[in-house]
Design goal:
Elements (H helix, E strand, L loop, with lengths): L5 E5 L3 H13 L3 E6 L2 H10 L4 E5 L1 E2 L2 E2 L1 H9 L4 E5 L15 E3 L4 H12 L5 H6 L6
Parallel strand pairs: 1-2, 1-3, 3-6, 6-7
Antiparallel strand pairs: 4-5
Length: about 130
């Protein structure tokens, strides 16, 4: 298998976090986390080499945007997850990829491949160990 793209999962609901991490691993991504709070996520953004992230917008009442800002500053693509649609986000985040909760496996697979593997052919994905849907 080639070098796995490393994806940070930031989600405070345990079952959702495990579900998302499992889906990403099944797609062939390396998973960092999951972590459930902003401080842990920011530490990983600083310490780890990340190729992408999946961020729950609301972490136990705290908004994840400090993590999104840190990722954006590093050019790391990310997907926001929320129980609300993009119109419920602050205007500066409405153009970012968003996945509505509850997380549906097929939707996450397609969005993750689109965001984290943009421009890769099916053959390149297979060589890298990623399983296209």
């Amino acid at each position: 298998m080639g070098c796995q793209k490393q994806i940070l999962v930031v989600e405070d609901e345990f079952l959702i976090a495990i579900h998302v991490a499992d889906i990403m691993a099944d797609l062939g991504f390396g998973v960092i986390g999951p972590v459930g709070d902003i401080a842990q996520a920011l530490a990983l953004v600083e310490e780890a080499t990340l190729d992408g992230a999946i961020l729950d917008v609301n972490l136990s009442g705290q908004l994840v945007f400090p993590v999104a800002i840190a990722l954006a500053a590093r050019g790391v693509p990310f997907i926001l997850t929320s129980g609300y649609d993009a119109n419920g986000l602050p205007i500066e985040w409405q153009d970012r990829p968003i996945l509505r909760k509850p997380v549906v496996e097929r939707d996450l697979c397609r969005l993750a491949q689109s965001v984290f593997l943009a421009g890769k052919s099916v053959q390149e994905l297979k060589v890298a160990g990623v399983h296209p849907v």
